[in-house]
Amino acid sequence: MKKLILFLLLLATAAHAETYKWTDSAGTIHFSESLAEVPASYRKSARPLGISTSTASPAATSGSTKSSNDFSGVENLKERMLQDQGAMEQIRALQNDPEMQALLSDPNVIRAVQSGDYSVLVNNPSFLRLLNNPRVKEIGKRMQ
């Protein structure tokens, strides 16, 4: 399950190099795949996350993976999930989940995802709480 959570974080933060984070007038945090998707009144406050899907290459993450927990199945899981449109829709919906938004707002989590430092993630209580998130459990069941 930790592999699934890690991959969900990777997808949520690195789905596109031009993912923008913005907050509406009600205080809700949103993520948009391009600046054009951000409502005009919020574009000035929208911030690019600047995260690329290539930031944590398998070669770069293999050392971290071995030194923390066994995340060797992440690539396999990634391929399976990318081929499953239903799972991808569930993952996109998860981006609006308050728990996921809180994690994505944490600079330490973003740095850990970018650098492939999974030990930081598996020791983060908020990350571990996602294991009990109903949406995450649903995605996990789908990918079994």
Looking at this protein, list some descriptive labels:
144 residues; mainly alpha; 3-stranded antiparallel sheet; globular
Description of the molecule:
Residues 6-61 form the DUF4124 domain. It comes from Trichlorobacter thiogenes. Residues 52-68 have a biased composition (Low complexity). The structure is a single chain. With 144 residues, this protein is mostly helical. The chain has one domain (2-143). Helices cover 55% and strands 7% of the residues. It has a three-stranded antiparallel beta sheet with strand order 2-1-3, with no helix packed on it. A hairpin with a 5-residue loop joins strand 1 (20-23) and strand 2 (29-32). Helix 4 runs antiparallel to helix 9. The longest helix is centred in the N-terminal third of the chain and has 13 residues, at 2-14.
In short:
It is built from 9 helices and 3 strands. The chain is mostly helical.
